[in-house]
């Protein structure tokens, strides 16, 4: 599952960085983009190949199985959703040309695009939509069901019209459909998820050539795609887990583009010939969360859990100088977060004032809470995180030490970390994590992050620490059904204020996405973190 900038920075997300492509460079990019000579002595059309270095491989090419950024990124190349979105999160037609909410407030009618073919030549129609959505609804092992938790029924009206009936009015439902990719019923009916993954059949801009697990995903352009074709004829997503190895691959010309450049490598890459560093604000919020479920035993003893005390949480908030951490540890490639929400979200309050860095006040609050001498605490964080998590966690620990909280840093690999912070069996007292959402709706984010875990089916999915406040739940119930954007935004602002006063979590920063791209290629970063081949031009 999926991790806020000023308006000016968000506009910069769409800025193109125009670079000059030279025909024969001594340090040629991995994708051979040189013109091929023709019989007439003139260069034929350039073959444009793109090699992208990424951190994570996909587990499956079944687009419904996993709700993770790695899976969503590749699925978007092979398949199409009913509703798509632009680099700045604007909702646009995908396989649905238009949609309307009928008078009952719960029935959404979608007019489907005609003439669309799957990669095997089959026609796309309403039967494929019904099959895709009912498959997800009826199989709880498919993680993309989280986007359809409010969907009650799918109806075929005719071959190119479908109606989706939600359980309650949900005015932002179209945004949920951006993540759900359409399958070919004729091909996939009766197949297991493994079989669908082994032979993906979609309507997307690209077709699968080869997936070597742990190594690469190779794609070729689908020249029969229904929309404007991307520049790159072939795309390879090459898995390079180690950050230093990824940087070296770019510098050596083994790849054309890398993501997740460590801040310590930025200056080195900037000084290299033929490479441009592109940074853009992300939607990924890094935050600290507390165990608010266990009354005792949370910090490794049988004693009462001090984190249940609001003044203790407020003390931790005041103890951390996040701006200094950004400036020193992250080299300025992040922005202070005052909320889970980025500024583009409906409900963001531009007047938010973050609790000030004030170690003396923090000590006072600890004393008032009954912990004048502090206590021992452990902060869990990912050792393979993308934001210098080890250094950030160490910096947080050093600030807490200054107010008497003796803090141990516990770095864990990805799988172990997520096991420890799993809300079904929370085993962490205090942890640093990240969360990203592309809905543009504060209500959607807070439904995931602060609604009582298991309070309602599908709600509080990201609320690992089990924060719970009945007033917050009631406000979010109202916001989820409010069709008026301004009224919905006001409800969200109230939720944000309550959770901030409760110190239910501590937002730290919105990291910048930092990319390296070789000369001859223009890249337009997205507001979200996914890398799409059609955002590149040669």
List the SSEs and their pairings:
Layout: H1 7-12, E1 49-54, H2 69-78, E2 83-85, E3 91-93, E4 96-101, E5 107-112, H3 126-138, E6 151-158, E7 161-166, H4 173-176, H5 185-188, H6 193-198, E8 206-212, E9 216-221, E10 234-239, H7 243-251, E11 257-258, H8 266-270, E12 275-290, H9 310-319, H10 322-328, E13 334-336, H11 359-368, E14 376-382, H12 389-401, E15 406-412, H13 414-420, E16 430-435, H14 442-449, H15 470-481, H16 485-502, E17 505-518, E18 522-523, E19 536-537
Helix pairs in contact: 9-11, 14-15, 15-16
How would you explain this protein's 3D organization?
This protein has 538 residues and is an alpha+beta fold. Helices cover 26% and strands 22% of the residues. It has helices at residues 7-12, 69-78, 126-138, 173-176, 185-188, 193-198, 243-251, 266-270, 310-319, 322-328, 359-368, 389-401, 414-420, 442-449, 470-481, 485-502, and strands at residues 49-54, 83-85, 91-93, 96-101, 107-112, 151-158, 161-166, 206-212, 216-221, 234-239, 257-258, 275-290, 334-336, 376-382, 406-412, 430-435, 505-518, 522-523, 536-537. The strands form 5 sheets. Strands 1, 8, 9, 10, 11, 12, 13, 16 and 17 form a 9-stranded mixed sheet that branches. The two termini are 32 Å apart. The relative contact order is 0.17. The model is unreliable at 1-45 (pLDDT under 50).
